[in-house]
Predict the structure.
Amino acid sequence: MNREDFNEGLLGFLDASPTPFHATQNMAGMFENAGFTRLHEVQKWNLKQGEKYYVTRNDSSIIAFTYPKSKNYVMIGAHTDSPNLKLKPNPVIKEHGVVKFGVEPYGGVLLNTWFDRDLSLAGRISYLDSQNMIKDSLVDAKKSIAIIPSLAIHLDREVNEKKSVNAQTDICPILSTNKEFNFENFLKWLLVSGGAEDIKEIYANELSFYDTQNASYIGLESEFIASARLDNLLSCYVGMLSICSVDALSPMLFIASDHEEVGSESASGAGGSFLESTLKRMFSDFEEYTQMIRSSILISADNAHAVHPNFASKHDANHAPLINGGVVIKVNANQRYASSSKTISRFMNVASSLGEPIQNFVTRSDMGCGSTIGPITASRIGIDTIDIGLPTYAMHSIRELCGSYDAYSLYKIILGFSE
């Protein structure tokens, strides 16, 4: 696969994955097409050596693995969720001639970027059918149905000097001027549009707004890719494609967990039991399990802050990654990243053998440092881990920016681990 084909697939994956549920569904479809067999956590597993498998949890987290029944696994970890505006359970607000929805910020949203964008709504709805069975359905309005208009500068003359956003009052998307709007009918329309039938009663929903603008190339020579949810669907795509590209006898595992942006403390997050229970079902003998863990490596892949050309002072000058400068190794003395000299050396050795460039990121010593699934997974599983990422501008904006060369470079490095 060349870089152009790789990136075209990436753009399609980004556009088709407005929520973690859709991203997981799309990855599951990719694994099916690549010959992976689906497993279910509530059923007994009868794993066969030399086969490939995948399993999901909560429809929003997914694990895929080859099963050569050997040690020395290369594991790639990413997350399916991105900061967004989630619909509240009782969201309808009718006032001042419009219908608007109450929302709650999910994760560290860069709120200013959500104004004046064409928004749609997607997620999961649970309902009861005529047989009194509870069913879940993924839905996507697939068109612009809402917008959060900015306040005119004439009514806020100091907006360019100071701008704060009140998460309760300022970011309610406007949907309609129809005074007869009915939320139940709206949810039913979403369900029917998504193919659901036999809807007796609607119970609950997990719906999020998203920007309808498609992912695209930017730059005079298409040096950049602009899209929503690059953090962290970019890494999901690389990990998914990597495990689909290796032989079934090459020990590799890919996990994409939900809820990283809010701390990972959930049943389907990296702080939960999903990966550990899967590994213990793969290696039921404790000796074999421990030997596999201690001979394997986890590549925790999450986006990295590229040095912003207009705000370069926000970076440590000696650790300021460049867009299209290669994969970034992330280090933190206080273990906010799990990289160690041993795991860094192993990663650098593979990258060097392929001629792929490597960069380093350390946050300024006078600034706080974010974290990833790396330290969480390393603590829970006991696996040697490296935190890496792809350089990105505008992280947690409604539309982020990455390079059109870096993700393909990471893909080649991960495959280099299996050679």
Summary: The longest strand covers residues 84-95.
